Amino acid sequence: MAHVLDVEYARSQFPALKSGFIFADNAGGSQITQRSIDLIVDYLTNTNVQLGADYSVSVTSTTRVFGAAEEARQLFNADTTDEIVFGSSSTANLDNLARGLENTINEGDEFIITGEHEANCGPWKKLAARRGAVIKYWHSTPTNPNNPYSLSLKLEELLALISAKTRIVAFTATSNLLGSVVPVQEITKAVRAEAAAKGAPKVEVSIDCVAYAPHRRMDVKAWDVDYCVFSFYKVYSPHVSAMYVRAPALASVTSIVHHFLAPEYAYKLQPGGPGYETVYGTKAALPYLLSLTPANDLAATFEAIAAHETKLVTALLSYLTAPEQAARGLRVVGVEEPGPTRLPTISFVVAGDRPMRSKDVVKVFDERGGIGIRWGHFYAYTLSTQLPPPADKDDGVVRISLVHYNTVAEVEKIISIFKEIFA
Ligand SMILES: Cc1ncc(COP(=O)(O)O)c(C=O)c1O
């Protein structure tokens, strides 16, 4: 039986949605559930003390905060909570990871990265500079010869980059700009086979799931990856990041902060990391997701989310790719066809002989009010500077990013504003 999303139920869980404002910048950060807000308030009201002391309030506080690793474990489908590390952001988690791997990197080792969000580029580029390693880019390339912006990652182009020196392959499960689901399991399998055939002694795979986790199910075991990261503020909770570090990899990652690897901790809290109350607030993400279908199961939840999101994507992409919009110079940045692997994170530029700046398109939405979308490079510097002219790197693209609590009626409202812009 197909699992169907009850969108009204989903919306009722978010106090911000009662305002009627159309939140269409969810790839920048989604709204937070009442349940998550309640957990944070309850923590601050009743158990806001330092962890690890023997007095009763601290014991309760410690249990509450350490318990949050179990929800993250289930969201990743990791084996144990020992494999979960919390950090203030995915950027910080990945940078800490790259520093922790430093002693395992030799001069000439090769890192293959996607030019996507800087969080998944910067840490690897800095690590390469510190250790004399080499960066190779797995770039997105067009899928439609008539649209140079119709970018997606192609497996064969990645495999061509692999050599006996490949040490790390780090890619996004979904780009926060292009919005396509990358088949992580298939890619990781092919990478490992190619690396083995070419004689690479040790290849580790790291996945950035920040733009993926709100939409589709993560499965680090089925994917066979070594590291994986996502941020709860995209998954209906406060800004905290969880990182998966596969158990055997824990042995070779040097502790760069005093709790990174301490085995006595049920999970690892990094100094300078998130507040305990926000870690506690993340516990609401899993129950919320499970509550979205009667099956009480993540696979069912994400099946229902995928079906609903596909309706949103189909409505929006059908408008944006229609011949009138194409003639006006509108070019979707990313895959143009709707379908279950196309997420409702939809970017575009207005090029052609009557180009419009992304900033000016968004200005119309701002002037009408009531809808939040934005323009820019979205920290995907490498990708946005790779875009063909006339996309201006300082102007970037327009991005409309929806999640399962957005409705087809909201998409229709967005389309009505486009009609004014292009009238
Ligand atoms: C794909 C992707 N990776 C990484 C990040 C960075 O996450 P954080 O803000 O938690 O550092 C983002 C944030 O938008 C993102 O979209």
TrEMBL record:
Question: Aminotransferase class V domain: which residues?
Answer: 22-413
UniProt GO MF annotations? transferase activity
| Keywords recorded for this protein, A-Z | Transferase
Q: Which residues form a coiled coil?
A: none
Q: Which SUPFAM superfamilies match?
A: PLP-dependent transferases (SSF53383)
Pfam families per UniProt: Aminotran_5
Gene3D superfamilies under this entry?
Answer: Aspartate Aminotransferase, domain 1, Type I PLP-dependent aspartate aminotransferase-like (Major domain)
Q: Which PANTHER family match?
A: CYSTEINE DESULFURASE, PYRIDOXAL PHOSPHATE (PLP)-DEPENDENT ASPARTATE AMINOTRANSFERASE SUPERFAMILY
Name by which UniProt lists this protein: Pyridoxal phosphate-dependent transferase
Organism (species) = Mycena metata
